[in-house]
Amino acid sequence: MTHLALDAARANVADPRGSFHWLDLTSEPAPATYDTIICNPPFHTGRASTPSLGQSIIEAASRALKPGGRFYMVANRGLPYEPLLKTHFASFETLVERSPDAILIVRDGRIDYANPAARRLVGIPDQAALTGRSALDLVAPPGRARLAGLLNATHDDGTDIRLEEQIVTSDGQVVDVEITAFGFDGGRGPVVQLIVRDITLRKQMEASLRESEERFRRAFDDAAIGMAIVSPEGRLIRVNESFSRWIGYTERELRDETFQQLTHSADVALNVGLWRRAL
Q: Tell me: the pLDDT tens digits for 10-22?
């Protein structure tokens, strides 16, 4: 039996108040009662989905909490945990409802659940209006085949797949998004969770950077005076056409030469001094 999770906890928790215990919570009682319990319960035995493992840990946590204690759990939205949480805890809320990222659960290609952020992103506030719709309907037509391939390629093996696409909102706006997908057993068969992040700002910044780089490239390549890009060691990385004509060598011939090698011997010391000041 592996203790890697416990070893990782020892490596990452430096607080001297911490203590570490190896327990099988499906059969052994917790050593004490606690004000707060945080967990990410397993739901696999090997590669087989076993949601009962997480259910056993929820029950063990309810017994180990002090009155008024808090239980925080990280789990896939589609796992069958909510009935058990309602049974064992006075109240509970799913943080996925408060997530700033859009989260959708897709079963057999159709939307089974969309959190508030997802409903805001697509402009459909009513959960019922989204439930049952094809997930492909949310994506701009050129990307539907890619999203279908993503859904088909997602398996219940703990890995995720990412894709950049464009979605179409209810009022026809096109939004650049990054979609992260991973599969799991939702208790009623395999499902896919999609985390959809608006990357409009990132795309705008990338476009601005490309435009800036293109302006620099044109200013460099088309300049009437000789220009060179030189490494901190003094080696020529790139030269423009004017520089090549002026010096009488092609860019390929100049590559990896140093500016000192191209400088008249009487001027090397002066140029090196200016170079060092510039650095």
A: 888 888 888 888 8
